[in-house]
Amino acid sequence: MENFTRFNPTKLIFGKGVVDHICDEVSPVGKRAIIVIGKGSVKASGLYARLVSLLNMCSIEHVTYEGIKSNPIYQDADNAVQLAKDFGADMIIAVGGGSVIDTAKAVAMGYYVEHSVWDFYLQKAKPVKALPVFTILTLAATGTEMNPFTVLQDTENGSKRGYGHPLLHPKASFLDPTFTTTVPANYTAYGVSDLIAHCLEQFFGSGNSPLTDLHTAAVIKLAVEYGFKVKEQANDYDTRANIMWLATNALNGSLTAGKNSGDWACHGFEHSLSVLFDIPHGAGLSIVFPAWLKYHQKQLQQKLCFLAKQVFEIETGKPEQDASAFIDRLELFFQEINTPIRLSQVNILPSSKAEILANFKLNKVNGQVYKLTEQDHEAILDFMW
Ligand code: NZQ
Ligand code: ZN
Fold it and tell me: For the domain that residue 37 is a member of, what is the CATH number?
């Protein structure tokens, strides 16, 4: 077991109708909010109108920045910073999925500086202050609602980057699973693959922490169970609630307790695919992770056997066979919930190979534990077709 600090200051408010209590949380913080939303789902669902009427009831003035795209761009965050400054916002309310919330976190840091938010992601600057961020989550996937990370991209320069800082923990997050029933089947599946990928990235990190390993395997096992269920019963509250809570647990610090770090190479590979081809994050991960596992199968054998047993109850006593079986079953699961497992399924053809490898190199894609050379990049990419 490694030394670790476990600190998560985000207040999580979970369940049916919890958004109705938003005034209790925002009123003590300020009087002027910038609301950040995506391309329209929260207007279509009625959630935006409900929020506006609640804020009006507790006399919170507000302005809205809308149009955040999936695979969000730093330019939107810079524009929203300007709006927040002009308005004199004293808080941010993000309503949407990971893209909206990550943009809101960028705005929170950008509010107190004169340079582009992108400088934080380039590690050219560190925030000393950030506006308080409140989130109303509408898509279960990233865990951003309870973590200090944000991911944005610079499309022109082919770079999608993450940034983390303790100031970026949301102050409070409202998770009403009811709002996730309108997420289309494809994005629901991508959310499940993202949360499983978060488990795997941390599981293959360094450090020995038996409780955390069992916790991680349990999250994956339940994600598989509810991933199947949600395909059949998309409107079932309990199914949506379980997926939502699993996704939060997969990346809120719980699964690194007693470990040094995760590996995170697969997220690096996926960010290249998203910035180059604008594919959804979870769809990229269900292609990348099986490829990475196959490439490292020998080194990972013992850990793969542990997962085979805990997640799929496979234990034949033949380690090589069990390790393969875990990867096969994971791929099969991704196929069954209709998230892609090969690049050709998202129309990325071998003719793009050189461009993809150049982007891996540009962004220095590497694992924190399993180090990668350019030859490794190519070999892993070859497993993705
Ligand atoms: O833009 P709107 O109209 O809101 O539509 C969104 C979007 O088209 C839609 N949607 C969201 N909630 C909905 C809904 N549609 C119907 N009903 C609802 N209730 O779903 C689409 C995808 O939304 P998006 O926010 O892009 O998805 P997700 O939550 O998966 O976020 C993905 C982003 O998060 C980053 C990814 O790289 C990607 O940019 N990540 C952030 C992390 C973090 N901050 O910790 C970690 C992750 O590993 C990940 O990298
Ligand atoms: Zn992810």
Answer: 3.40.50.1970
Q: What is the residue with the minimal CA distance to atom 13 of ligand 1?
A: 183
CA of 98 from ligand 1 middle (Å) equals 4
Structure tokens at 212: 């955390």
Tens-digit pLDDT profile for residues 229-275: 999 999 999 999 999 999 999 999 999 999 988 999 999 999 999 99
- For residue 98, give the ligand nearest its CA: 1
Handedness of CA 103, 109, 115, 121 (dihedral sign): negative
Which is the closest atom of ligand 1 to the Cα of 197? Answer: 48
Residues 224, 91 share a domain: no
* 198 and 309 co-located in one domain: yes
User: What's the distance, CA 93 to chain centroid?
Assistant: 18
Q: Report the domain count for the chain.
A: 2
Pocket of ligand 1 contains residue 102 by CB under 6 Å: yes
Q: Is the CB of 270 under 6 A from ligand 1?
A: no
The domain boundary residue, chosen from 161, 179, 197: 179
- Sequence-distant (≥ 6) Cβ neighbours of residue 82 within 8 angstroms: none
What is the per-residue DSSP string for 192-249?
A: HHHHHHHHHHHHTSBS--HHHHHHHHHHHHHHHHHHHHHHH-TT-HHHHHHHHHHHHH
Say yes or no: 198 and 339 in one domain: yes
Instruction: Tell me if 149 CB under 6 Å of ligand 1.
Output: yes
DSSP string computed for 150-173: EEEEETTTTEEEEEE-GGGS-SEE
pLDDT in tens, 153-193: 999 999 999 999 999 999 999 999 999 999 999 999 999 99
Same domain, 153 and 211: no
Q: Is residue 36 part of a domain?
A: yes
Predicted TM-score of the model (pTM): 0.98
* Range(s) of the domain holding residue 153: 11-179
Cα(282) to centroid(ligand 2), Å: 7
Residue nearest ligand 1's atom 32 by CA: 98
Same domain, 260 and 348: yes
Q: Are residues 39 and 114 in the same domain?
A: yes
- 173 and 233 inside one domain: no
Ligand 1 close to Cβ of residue 38 (< 6 A):
yes
Distance 250 CA to ligand 2 centre (A): 10
Whose CA is closest to 272, among 197, 156, 190, 357? 357
Residue 251 sits in a domain whose CATH number is 1.20.1090.10
